[in-house]
Amino acid sequence: MIKISFPDGSVREYEQGVNGLQIAESISPALARDVIACGVNGETVELNRPINEDSAVQLYKWDDEAGKHAFWHTSAHLLAEALQELYPGIQFGFGPAVENGFFYDVLLKDGMSIKESDFPTIEAKMKELASKKEPVVRKEISKADALKEFADAGQTYKCEHIEQDLEDGSITTYTQGAFTDLCKGPHLLNTGAIKAIKLTSVAGAFWRGDATREQMQRLYGVSFPKKKMLDEYLLMLEEAKKRDHRKIGKEMDLFMFSERVGKGLPIWLPKGTELRLRMQDMLRKIQKNYGYQEVITPHIGGKNLYMTSGHYAHYGKDSFQPIHTPEEGEEYMLKPMNCPHHCEIFAWKPRSYKDLPLRIAEFGTVYRYEQSGELHGLTRVRSFTQDDAHIFCRPEQVKNEFLRVMDIINAVFSIFHFDNFEAQISLRDPNDHEKYIGSDEVWEKGESAIIEACREKGLKAKIEYGEAAFYGPKLDFMVKDAIGRRWQLGTIQVDYNLPERFKLEYTDEDNTKKTPVMIHRAPFGSMERFCAVLIEHTAGHFPLWLTPDQVAILPISEKYNEYARKVAKEFDVVGVRATVDSRNEKIGRKVRDNEMKRIPYMLIVGEKEQADGTVSVRKQGSEERGVMTIAEFAKKINDEVAEMLRATDVKPED
């Protein structure tokens, strides 16, 4: 008999060799019907995988991320199986599950390509195969046999993957129907659970992400256990199109891109710049209350700076190439991170324990070379600004500083009405320490500090192994927007390693030299990404304190343009942001156009308003109207803003 422990702390005994499905059946028939995959000691496996020793077990249903992952992983194989039937001679690359569905990279023979018009045929074939309830069979296979099997099938890319990436004794395949794939799993027991399928897009993707290699086609799709779920998802996609930050950003004149300036390099227009600066001012106010000092560092740094930090070794391939100067051997890099510069600020002069914690903040622009195919509006760019800060502290101060940063992030999310968020503790991969710097001892300290801080705050955080930064563990915040999509925004990271690499030190109370601990934090994360998410969350209807234009003044004819400008000047004196639409257009057209710009208030002015010194008020999205004096309306706006900004008056408790 073996002991099986469950997440609620209960323990049951089962015969050795029991599997996840049998465990579910022993609990309830309903659970057995709904369970998709099984977690065994942190690893997700198929429901028929035998368990031969005492284990911690978790049973995953569709609502669990691990359940969705297994479901979509099998759906990716189902897509490949359908393509294999429809397009003989097709070459397969990689086909994983992703956050919202799955994709498969493929290359058709003779220069053929798959178009969106082909999607209904492919979907129909997938549904036909799924209805057969084909068992998904796992098999362990030697490297030699794997090479032979995939060579016989003519799968060039699979053979390359086996030769270059896989070690003998660790290779498994999964077969459903006539399709076999290299895969670690996990999968569904059979294809029958896949009831609703939709292919969503097709894009180009270089093999292994290498622009010098062949360009394949990447087919994206999503699937569900019920058609109703797919219908709801498609409605969400339609809403997402309406909220697309690229579309709204253009309509509101917030930002632009220029091919001549370069791909992935956003240009902030005047209204977008105002928006960003107000966000930065809001965070500056909070940071000042928490004892941060702001700095400005260069956009480039000597190559040796990033070799010392380890960023060159870990991010070199994702960075722009070094900049060579006329001086022999002198090389600079566009900075991919702000932290090495901040380490140099700490090292600039002798530090005492009395100086700690030292909190350094910067709205620092960094540069990373993203593949052209990965660029997407403001969410994936090559130049972005981080609301970066680094706290240098004594080991005994780490937890308290971590808690203070959590308070700042909570305040930021509250101010922007991101009320639905999850936390994720990202730790090292326990089976692969090679990709991280630093000793086991310092990693254990950092990981413990994060876990204890979350426990003290009562924050339920999911633990993900293998997601840590190369220099330390982190706590990431995943926000759900107004239509239910998840975005990774704020982050806090504990780092014992960079201070050691830069040989940072302070003089402690006993007059000995000690190495400080470094905490990285960014409540917004990237200003670009945060703005994109905020645009889509609000559909461009920003809070009144933040929006670039609070008021649009609409004269009903050109005769009243001068009065409209007079009103705007009076507003400007008292801090109300107003724009005048002086175009020679009918008032209905002006209203529609300014509605499109998401301006919160429209003030219509004509003969009566000019004579009385008033404005006719129309609120965005409403037919309600009212007449107010200029001073009354200005007070109304400023009172609304003052009430909203009270939420930004955040101070630490201690």
Automatic annotation (TrEMBL):
The cross-references to SMART domains, in alphabetical order and at most eight, read: tRNA_SAD
What is the protein named?
Answer: Threonine--tRNA ligase
Q: Which family does it belong to?
A: Belongs to the class-II aminoacyl-tRNA synthetase family.
Q: Which HAMAP family is this protein grouped with?
A: Thr_tRNA_synth
TGS domain location is 1-61
Which residues are in the Aminoacyl-transfer RNA synthetases class-II family profile domain?
244-555
Q: Which gene encodes it?
A: thrS
Keyword set, alphabetical order: Aminoacyl-tRNA synthetase, ATP-binding, Cytoplasm, Ligase, Metal-binding, Nucleotide-binding, Protein biosynthesis, RNA-binding, tRNA-binding, Zinc
Q: Catalysed reaction per UniProt?
A: tRNA(Thr) + L-threonine + ATP = L-threonyl-tRNA(Thr) + AMP + diphosphate + H(+)
Q: What class of enzyme is it?
A: ligase
Q: What is the scientific name of the source organism?
A: Xylanibacter muris
